[in-house]
Design goal:
With 635 residues, the protein is of the alpha/beta class. Helices cover 60% and strands 10% of the residues. The protein has helices at residues 46-52, 69-82, 84-117, 121-170, 173-179, 181-223, 225-272, 274-279, 283-335, 341-385, 441-449, 488-493, 501-510, 514-517, 536-550, 566-579, 615-621, 624-632; strands spanning 402-410, 416-425, 430-434, 456-461, 464-465, 474-477, 486-487, 526-527, 554-558, 584-588, 600-605, 608-613. The strands form three sheets. The chain has a six-stranded mixed beta sheet, sandwiched between helices. The chain has a four-stranded antiparallel beta sheet with strand order 2-1-4-5, with helices on one face. The radius of gyration is 33 Å and the shape is elongated. The N and C termini lie far apart (84 Å). The protein binds adenosine-5'-triphosphate. The site of adenosine-5'-triphosphate has 14 residues, from helix 11. Its main location: membrane. Residues 1-62 are annotated as: Disordered. Residues 1-18 have a biased composition (Basic and acidic residues). It comes from Streptomyces evansiae.
């Protein structure tokens, strides 16, 4: 018996290129930052990132949830409701095709009887013509039904895709980062592809096959109740095998989906961080991690394969058993004059035909398991974002005072990375945040920019929580950046669609991107695969130029110039400061060369704000900052 093997849609590569900062490893550039602009990227780089981000929920479970069975059913019904007419047309045409398919076996039995009766050739010809007409009708109706089913499926898949895209864009940036690119890519490509095939093919096929089974069995019972009952025998075997399978399949397919996502995540991270891996000699460790994921994915796939290897032979047995039983029993009945030859033939043909819908049913039920698991993963995004329209962002109306009140934040719900921070930053103030490694500086920067929502307290700009601000008000620039597939102009114009070439060139010049002037194609230079691949420093300058064009009210810089050589970095920072005069700038400083120019310096230690004042005040106070300053100058 040949089974149509539904294949999973292969994962397609994302259209946009990944971030290009050279020192990245497992970094996951965020696509969008709530309340901040797309010119920003967040997260930590290189060795740091490998250690803790993207964070997985405890136990290695994916950070993104998976929808429950009833939510998946609700979503599927909503898709049918949204295209009720298309669905009904497909189902009705399929039912008609099934009806036409029942005519031929019955007519064949009639032919045998008429021949035995000694009826003439014209009668047999008429019956044969009937078979031909019924078969033709079945072919045409089936084709028409498939067309409608495919159209319905395509429209439904488009809806699923659109909703997924909307939810993806609404994902809080911190959740997107923790989920990891691999999981999101698999959900957005492989899973949606599987859902599409399920909706387009599996759904209608299962429905029609489920209708065919009682109709065919009913036709066989009508011809001969005893022979028709043999069909029940085969169905019982198949039913038992299917039940065994269905009990185990959902968990097995979910595990397979998760293992694939984890593998994709690991491979993506390895590719993105290839350079760092090489620099730190981490190849063996990374390879071991990838191989570990491959082993898990392999085990998960073996698990589902084992289930199929029991299901399919059992189904084959269930398909042939009733035919063999009907022929044996039919032969006996006919020999005793209890059944006509035509009835035995018609029954055997019906029971043989019964295996087709049963086989289709199981084949697609198997696929339906995958489809349901994939749909649960796709719908899982809705559990994070919901479907409620995103409230319109509120624009602050005051003078631009930034306030942190009782702010605390914990990544794991256990230890506070930032605690009890009260701070008011005046409009236009330059604040530099310093402190030892792991003190919470970056976390503070992310809280201020709205990239992270505080676990406690509030971060507001003129009283409005920063994560609800319109894009571009508060911008976070880190050392991880995103280069979009397209020209240099398109990459810059993302931040300012109305800016002219002169504005774009000025922004590039301000951030010291002299390389851009030397490009033969200038702003038309294509960036990304197949085009120019700028190095980490150039990508950082591109991001800073985008930030300038965005002209934010508050700018948070965290290692924003770390990949640029120190002299150019200092020049770039001064130029930025001049251009951003009047804007509030908060700099997370890992080098202390800018602290002297700042209005105030904030010192973070163990998540708390321990010192706050001007450079002179803090040096005079002889505390932590004074120590850091002395160490910086080698005193
Ligand atoms: N994504 C994350 N998931 C879990 N823990 C994190 C995450 N990011 C930071 N942390 C933890 O929060 C604490 C503060 O980290 P943070 O990066 O804010 O400090 P930092 O002062 O910027 O350090 P550095 O100077 O090394 O960048 C650290 O203990 C760190 O391990």
């Amino acid at each position: 018996m040949t089974r149509p093997r539904p294949e999973r849609t292969p994962a397609k590569p994302a259209r946009e290129t990944a971030g290009k900062a050279s020192a990245q490893t497992a970094g996951t550039a965020s696509v969008r930052t709530a309340g901040t602009a797309s010119a920003t990227t967040t997260g930590k780089a290189s060795a740091k990132t490998t250690g803790r981000a993207p964070a997985k929920a405890p136990g290695g479970a994916p950070a993104l949830p998976v929808a429950a069975g009833r939510d998946v059913l609700r979503a599927a019904l909503a898709l049918v409701r949204a295209d009720r007419r298309g669905f009904l047309a497909a189902v009705l045409l399929n039912v008609c095709a099934v009806g036409a398919g029942l005519v031929a076996p019955w007519l064949l039995g009639e032919i045998v009887e008429r021949v035995r009766d000694g009826s003439g050739v014209p009668t047999v010809d008429r019956l044969a013509a009937g078979i031909l007409a019924a078969s033709l009708a079945q072919i045409l109706l089936t084709r028409w039904a498939r067309l409608h089913a495919h159209r319905f499926g395509e429209r439904a898949q488009a809806r699923v895709r659109e909703r997924f895209a909307a939810r993806l864009l609404a994902l809080p940036p911190a959740v997107a980062e923790r989920a990891g690119t691999g999981d999101l890519v698999v959900r957005g490509t492989t899973d949606i592809g599987t859902v599409g095939t399920t909706l387009r093919d599996a759904g209608p096929e299962v429905f029609v096959a489920a209708l065919q089974v009682p109709l065919i069995l009913g036709a066989a019972v009508l011809v001969s109740p005893l022979l028709g009952a043999c069909g029940v025998l085969g169905l019982a075997v198949t039913w038992a095998a299917a039940r065994w399978y269905m009990r185990r399949a959902p968990a097995a397919y979910l595990a397979e989906g998760e293992a694939n996502a984890a593998l994709a995540e690991e491979v993506t991270a390895s590719a993105a961080g290839a350079r760092t891996t090489e620099v730190y000699g981490l190849a063996a460790r990374r390879l071991a991690r990838v191989l570990d994921r491959v082993a898990v994915a392999h085990r998960a796939r073996e698990g589902t394969l084992a289930l199929r290897s029991v299901l399919f032979p059992a189904v084959d047995f269930g398909a042939f058993l009733p035919v063999a039983a009907a022929l044996l029993l039919g032969g006996l009945l006919h020999a005793h004059g209890l059944a006509s030859l035509g009835a035995v033939l018609a029954c055997a043909l019906y029971l043989r035909k019964l295996s087709e819908p049963v086989d289709i049913l199981l084949q697609w039920l198997e696929f339906l398991q995958r489809g349901t698991a994939s749909f649960a993963r796709v719908e899982g995004l809705g559990l994070v974002t919901g479907d409620a329209p995103v409230p319109a962002p509120r624009a602050p109306t005051g003078d631009g005072t930034l306030r942190l009140a009782g702010v605390r934040h914990s990544y794991d719900g256990d230890r506070d990375a930032v605690r009890d921070v009260d701070l008011t930053v005046r409009p236009g103030e330059r604040l530099v945040v310093v402190g030892p490694s792991g003190a919470g500086k970056t976390t503070l920067g992310r809280l201020v920019s709205g990239a992270e929502t505080p676990s406690g307290g509030a971060v507001t700009l003129d009283g409005v929580p920063v994560h609800t601000l319109p894009p571009g008000r508060v911008v976070l620039v880190t050392q991880e950046h995103h280069v979009f597939l397209g020209t240099l102009r398109e990459n810059l114009a993302l931040a300012a669609p109305d800016a002219g070439d002169a504005d774009l060139e000025r922004a590039l010049a301000t951030v010291g991107a002299d390389w851009a002037r030397e490009l033969p194609a200038g702003l038309d230079t294509v960036l990304g695969p197949g085009g120019l691949s700028p190095d980490g420093a150039a990508v950082q300058q591109l991001s800073l130029a985008r930030t300038l064009l965005l002209d934010p009210g508050v700018l948070v810089l965290d290692e924003a110039t770390s990949l640029i050589d120190p002299r150019t970095a200092r020049r770039t920072e001064r130029a930025l400061a001049a251009v951003l005069a009047g804007r509030t700038v908060i700099t997370v400083a890992h080098r202390l060369h800018t602290t002297r120019d700042a209005d105030r310096v904030a010192v973070m230690e163990d998540g708390a704000l321990t010192e706050l004042g001007t450079h002179e005040e803090l040096v005079g106070a002889g505390g932590t900052y004074a120590g850091l300053w002395r160490a910086w100058h080698g005193a």
